[in-house]
Input
Amino acid sequence: MCGIIGYTGHRPAVPLVMEGLKRLEYRGYDSSGVCFVQNRELHVIRAEGKLKLLEDKLAGREVSLSTTAMGHTRWATHGAPTEDNAHPHLSCYGKLAIVHNGIIENYQERKNDLLSKGVRFSSETDTEVLVNCIEDELKPGLSLLEAFAGALQKAHGAYALALLSPDEPNVVYAARQSAPLLLGIGAGENFVASDIPAFLPFTRDVVFLEDGEIVRITPTSWEVFSIDTLQPLEKKPQRIEWDLQAAQKGGFKHFMLKEIFEQPRAIADCMSGRVNLERLEVSIPELDSADAPARLRVIACGTSYNAGLWAMPLMEQWAGIPTTVEIASEFRYRNALLSPGELALVISQSGETADTLAALRIARQQGCPVLGLCNVIGSSIAREADMVVFTQAGPEVSVASTKALSSQMVVLLLMALYWGRKKKTLDRETLRQALRGLAALPTQLESLMPSLNDEARRMAARFSSCRGMFFLGRGQSYPLALEGALKVKELSYIHAEGYAAGEMKHGPIALVDPEFPSFFIAPHDDLFAKSKSNLEEVAARSGPVIALTNPPKPGMELRGGESWILPDAWGPLSGFLMLPAIQLFSYEAATLLGKDVDQPRNLAKSVTVE
Ligand code: M6R
Output
C-alpha cells in the first residue's frame, strides 16, 4: 500500500527516486508523483495511473540539478485516484510538500479548523490537511522539526510520511506511526523509504524506525527523535544480507511465477537449521524459553489465515493443543476473550498488516503472550511480538502470496512437531515420517514443477472462460480450497467460492450447472471417500469437475470430470504438492485472460490500513 522514497545526497535525485518507486510498484498503486527542490523552490509533478505516465511527464523537464527529492505511489483511500489527489501535496502557501502512506482519522475536524483560518484545498485527501496542519504550526521561532512534531501530536491515525521544505533544501524529514518506514544510511547520501528494495542498490545499512519516531536526514547526517518529546533517540543500523537479485524477476515473466517456482528453495530454507534428520530432532530456539501453550489462538488475514487453518489439525493431533483460527479484522472488534495459558500466534508475510498488528496489540493488552510468524525481518509485527519465528522465504514481491504460504506451512508443521515432542504427545514414527517426507520435498517438488505448469496451462485453457467456480476440499484440503478460490478471484477476477466439500449440499450446490466447474482437492487421505461422494454428486448434476488427486488405486477411482494426478505424499505433506498446482492454475487463468498478474486491480501487497 502506498510507496514512499525520500533522498538527499550527491546524485541527481529525481531519476534515483523514480527508480526507487519502480522497486516499490509491487505494493500496489493507482497514481504517483515526485517533488524535488531546485533553486530553493519545490516542484511537484504527479500523474494518474502507472509510473510510465509520470515518467512521460518528467521527460523534457530539467531535473538533473536537484539532489534532494521524494516520490510516492498512491493507493487511494480518501478521494478517487486522480492527479489532484495524487501525492506529493503542497501546503496552501507553498512552504511545504508531503507524501503519506496511511490514514489521518481526525482529518475532517482539522480541515474544518483550517478552512475557518482561510486555508484552501485542492484535493480531497487527508494528506493535504496534514501538510497544512504542519504549516499552521510553523510559528516564528519554531523549527520545522518542532512544527512537524507538533502537528503529528494532534494527528490520529496511521502514517509514514516524508516532508520537504525549500528553506532547508538538503533536508528530508520523515515520521512513522503504524505504517512501515525505514532509513537507509549511505556515504554522503541518506534515504527514507517504505521498503528496503527502494534504496538497496545504494546501501545495505538500514535503521528500522519505530512508531512515534521522527527523522531528519541530510546528505551527511541522520537523527531520530521521539515525536512526543523531541528527545534524540539512539538507533543502530542493521546490515541487509540479501541482494536485489532476490527481489527481481530473474528471467520469469512475472514475480508471481518466479515466486511459485521458488517454493522448493523456500521449503528447504525454512527447514534449514531447524531439522536434524539423523537424530530426528526439530529445533526452534525461539520457542525454547516457554512451555508449549495450553491453547493456541491463530490470528491472521488472507493467505496467512489459510496457513493457520491448514495447521490447526496438526497442532491438535500432534501437539494436543486446542487451536482456534481467526480472521484478524473480526478478532479485533469483538472483545475476544483469551484464556490463561493461551498463546496468540499472529501470522503475516509482510509483518505490516494493520488488522493483524491491531490483533497482536489487543492480545498483549490482555496479557496474552504473542508469537509472530513473519517473513519480513524488522517489520512491525516482528518487533512487537514477544517471540518471533521467521519463515525465511526471501522477499515476496507479487501481490498474490505464494511462497510465503508454503514456508508458513513448513514452519507451522515444525512447530506442531516441536510442541508434540515437548509435550510427549507425538510418537516417534510420526516424527520420522514427517521429517523424512519434508526433507525429500524440495527435490520432489523441483522436478514436478515443469509438468505442473504444463497441466495448469491446459486446465486453465479449458476452464478460464467459466462464469464462476468452486474450490472444494475436506480436512486439510479445505484451507487449500479457500486458497485456490482466493487466488482465482484476486488474479483473474473470476468469481470463485472456496467451500468445505461436506457443506456443499447445505446450499451452494444450487449453483452447479454445466457452466460452473468445481475444482476438488482430493488427495488419497482418510477423507478421500467422502470427497469422492461429493464429487460424484456434482458430476451427477452435470457440473464440470477437476480433481487434484493421486494415482488411481483399486476402489479409489474417480468417475466423471478431469483428474489431475499428483504423486503420492505422506499425510499432510500432499498439501505442499497440491498448493503449487492451484497457484499455477490461477496464474495461467489470469494470464490467459490478460490480467495484470503481479498487480491485480484494487489490491496492495501490504495492507497497512484497516
Ligand atoms: O502480509 P500478510 O501475510 O499479513 O498479508 C495478509 C493478506 O493481505 C495477504 O495474504 C493477501 O490475502 C494476499 N493478496 C493473498 O494472495
